[in-house]
Design goal:
Order of helices and strands of chain B: EEEHEEHEHHHEHEHEEHHH
Oligomer: heterodimer
Distance between the termini of chain B: 33 Å
Radius of gyration of chain B: 18 Å
Strand order of the largest sheet of chain A: 1-2-3-4
Strand content of chain A: 5-15%
Bound molecules: adenosine-5'-triphosphate, magnesium ion
Strand content of chain B: 15-25%
Structural class of chain B: alpha/beta
Radius of gyration of chain A: 36 Å
Number of strands of chain B: 10
Shape of chain B: globular
Order of helices and strands of chain A: EEHEHEHHHHHHHHHH
Largest interface: A-B, 37 and 42 residues
Largest sheet of chain B: 6 strands, mixed
Number of helices of chain A: 12
Distance between the termini of chain A: 88 Å
Helix content of chain B: 25-40%
Structural class of chain A: alpha/beta
Shape of chain A: elongated
Largest sheet of chain A: 4 strands, mixed
Amino acid sequence: MTDTRGRIESISAGNRLEIHLSGRWEVGYAAELEIALAQLSPPVDQPVLIDLSGLDRLDTTGAWLIHRGSEALRSPRRSVTLSGARAEHEQLIARVSGLYQPCEIQPPAGNALIRLVARLGENALTVLDTAASFTAFIGLTTVTLLRSLLHPRRLRFNAITVHMEATGINALPIVSLISFLIGIVMVYQSAFQLTRFGAQIFVIDLLAFSVLRELGVLLTSIVVAGRSGSAFAAEIGSMKLHEEIDAMRALGMDPVEILVLPRILSLMVVLPLLVFTADVMALLGGAIMCWISLDIAPDLFLQRLRSAVDLPTFWIGIVKAPFFAGLIALTGCYEGLQVSGSAESVGQRTTRAVVESIFLVIVADALFSVVFTILGL
Amino acid sequence: MSGPIIRIRGLCNAFGDQIVHQDLDLDVDEGEVLGVVGGSGTGKSVLLRSIIGLNTPAAGHIEVFGQELTGLRGDTRRRLERRWGVLFQDGALFSALTVAQNIEAPLKEHLSLSRSLMDEIAALKITMVGLGPEAGSKFPSELSGGMRKRAGLARALAMDPEIVFLDEPTAGLDPIGAAAFDELIGSLQSQMGLTVFMVTHDLDSLTAICDRIAVLAEKRVLAIGTMADMLQQDHPWIREYFHGPRARAAGVGAGTNGI
Ligand SMILES: Nc1ncnc2c1ncn2[C@@H]1O[C@H](COP(=O)(O)OP(=O)(O)OP(=O)(O)O)[C@@H](O)[C@H]1O
Ligand SMILES: [Mg+2]
């Protein structure tokens, strides 16, 4: 195959500079052609003739380069003529030069300092805005929930069961595994400390109290926030992006009722059950570890467990679960509905959904501790 | 290059039980504008996606630029992909990039051009497809449907391809814009020898710029030929299509050009 790349040759003929262009002037060779054109620097008053008769193929980028190159050479003291072009090449160059209008590539960025200050203020206001609109969203959801309770047919049990499977049953393996391992780690760590005081048996008290009251529900909520909170935000967010939410509104369908309520209700049902599983698995892991490392047989473990904790301790963990579930689902759905514009926004909102819901869960957990202390539980 | 620029033989496509194409043959010649028509759901978009390799056919051969496409990977494939541009039915712009950045995306990927040249090429393509220069810094979500279509075309033309695949390019454009679009495609075709594979229902486009028309029906190319050939066909669907009230309104078959 012969070399067909675009080429430039310049020859001084008499007092005139002749530039011969040949080969394929295409976008693929544009980088080298641009450099070659920029290297042409004839004396200021030498007339230039650009000969296009050798061109094989010319595309719009090539045409633009020729136009740009000839304009760069042109000056009051130097004439530049194009000659020898085939009719279609001449048309293309004329078209390209006639059409070109410079344009902005990105929205103007502005002064860096001003941007920094503006961003600071913007972020501060966003926090307030988010707080206000999230509160409004909670209100809206509550109202919709109450309205649906009056017409139970509108509760969409099908959707609820589908979400229960996705957020509950499918989460069982990971939740079980994590809590089992946590049970093992708890016993292992506390056994080491407590044996020094000869108080091995209190390992069971420590394990039972921390798992049942706090760890079981917190860990499960964090796993579920990462699994389902993010899924809610991403699902609703990409629906928002594809105008599906707008379509629902236009068809007189209420997105809160159709998308948000089933997710919230299913998670509120499922999370307590997951927490129960987590409790059992953590105690199981702890029991096995007690047996292996402390030689506490399972029957002794159970006996001690029964005397160490009472039923309210168990319920304190479980009772928090529906509240945490509500927070996680609300945040996920809220952030999903806030998506706008680009695919990037789906990612940002999903991240925010997870971070915010974990944060809210921990804040709520702290509030619960205060309340339970006041109640003397 | 001798022979057709796109050569399809015995193409079969199926989704589950649903057979979309069966033993489909089609040739596209270099430098021609081929219009592909057919009822909704007859597999025009699937055909286009198969040619550009987004859809793996169940059977058959597809050659583009004389090279068999199936099984082509890596660098050879990328070199081939540089030589065509695609406008998807719904634009498919990158939502995180501005219009100008969308156009620059393939340039950045395949070439190492200077910043200024790249910006100029983007600006040129933007005005070429009939967008105002202010559209360059806008994000796809800030554009109207028709503007998104034009921006998609600008991106398809970014690499000055030898073939462009257009999926219903004039749908959603105002008639003036659609005519300007036809004019743009026609002039690029005559000035650069562009080959155009265009799925369209726009009878004006079909008469104005298509050299040949391929009718997709009954899972294959039912008929292919010039507008005059189409008017001669007696298959009921083809008759209905080219002799229906809309065709008459567009001046098809009236002996004069549609525009
Ligand atoms: N990814 C897919 N999975 C399953 N079926 C598909 C898929 N893509 C297309 N189909 C089916 O293939 C058929 C052809 O679809 P295609 O999009 O090619 O239609 P079309 O001819 O482009 O129609 P239109 O003019 O409405 O754009 C349709 O019946 C569609 O349901
Ligand atoms: Mg289609």
